[in-house]
């Protein structure tokens, strides 16, 4: 359902979806898309007021997407297409051989190569995602080992998973989950996400003490955080 509300001299249009949930959530997506998820039965006038109260934040997010020149992904998984890995762009090259029984991915000489018997987009996307997940797991586990002595604590469990809204999260029992897409970011940014989540093992919220903890390990964390905010939207398949 399409609705709108006025914030100053700006009209904010949004898509409303009623869900089985207890709270209202607002999502801003590229390009110029605002989605509101509302508990069933909540009156429209209340929803509009909630959206209006978040007007400044919504307009800033929309401008952020515009400033970085976001272009929606329409992947064809064809030769020459560009994919990001560890902060660098790599050209894709397909080696098509019908007799191949196993599809594989290889990064060599600045080229991301897929050996495959098919050009089916869905299959190639699934394959690349699996490759990214494995690479993310290897690097994250290695870097967590590096940072553990600095915290005196370690996660109960580490898992690489699909996360649409977060790059990482730390549960109340000390389990840490990472978005597999983080492997597309530069190593310094990946380290920031790791340190951020490990800091939650000590401080559960984003208090001043939490950020002091992060800064004590990564004095330049704000630069790394800014890169993620500006470029994270491009880390997609």
> Strand tally, please?
11
- Count of folded domains: 2
Query: N- to C-terminal separation?
Result: 28 Å
Low-confidence stretches are: none
Number of helices: 6
Which class best fits the helix and strand makeup?
alpha/beta
What characteristic shape results from the CA principal axes? globular
Which CATH architecture of the largest domain? 2-Layer Sandwich
CATH third-tier fold name of the largest domain: Zincin-like
CATH class type of the largest domain: Alpha Beta
Taking strands numbered 1, 2, ... along the chain, how are they ordered across the largest sheet? 1-2-4-3
Biggest sheet layout: 4 strands, mixed
Q: Classify the beta-strand content into a percent band.
A: 25-35%
Radius of gyration: 21 Å
Order of helices and strands: EEEEHHEEEEHEEEHHH
> What's the mean pLDDT score?
89
Helix content: 25-40%
């Amino acid at each position: 359902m399409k609705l709108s509300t006025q914030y100053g001299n700006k009209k904010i249009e949004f898509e409303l979806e009623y869900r089985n949930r207890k709270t209202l959530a607002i999502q801003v997506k590229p390009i110029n898309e605002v989605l509101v998820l509302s508990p069933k039965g909540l009156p429209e006038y209340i929803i509009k007021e909630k959206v209006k109260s978040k007007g400044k934040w919504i307009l800033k997010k929309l401008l952020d997407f515009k400033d970085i020149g976001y272009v929606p992904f329409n992947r064809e998984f064809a030769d020459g297409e560009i994919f990001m890995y560890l902060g660098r762009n790599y050209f894709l090259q397909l080696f098509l051989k019908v007799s191949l029984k196993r599809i594989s991915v290889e990064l060599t000489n600045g080229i991301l190569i897929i050996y495959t018997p098919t050009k089916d987009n869905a299959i190639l996307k699934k394959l690349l995602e699996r490759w990214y997940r494995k690479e993310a797991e290897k690097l994250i586990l290695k870097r967590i080992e590096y940072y553990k002595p600095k915290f005196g604590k370690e996660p109960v469990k580490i898992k690489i998973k699909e996360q649409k809204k977060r790059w990482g999260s730390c549960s109340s029992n000390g389990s840490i989950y990472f978005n597999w897409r983080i492997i597309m970011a530069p190593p310094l940014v990946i380290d920031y996400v790791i340190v951020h989540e490990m800091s939650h093992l000590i401080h559960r919220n984003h208090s001043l003490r939490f950020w002091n903890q992060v800064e004590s390990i990564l004095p330049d964390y704000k630069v790394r955080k800014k890169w993620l905010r500006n470029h994270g939207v491009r880390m997609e398949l």
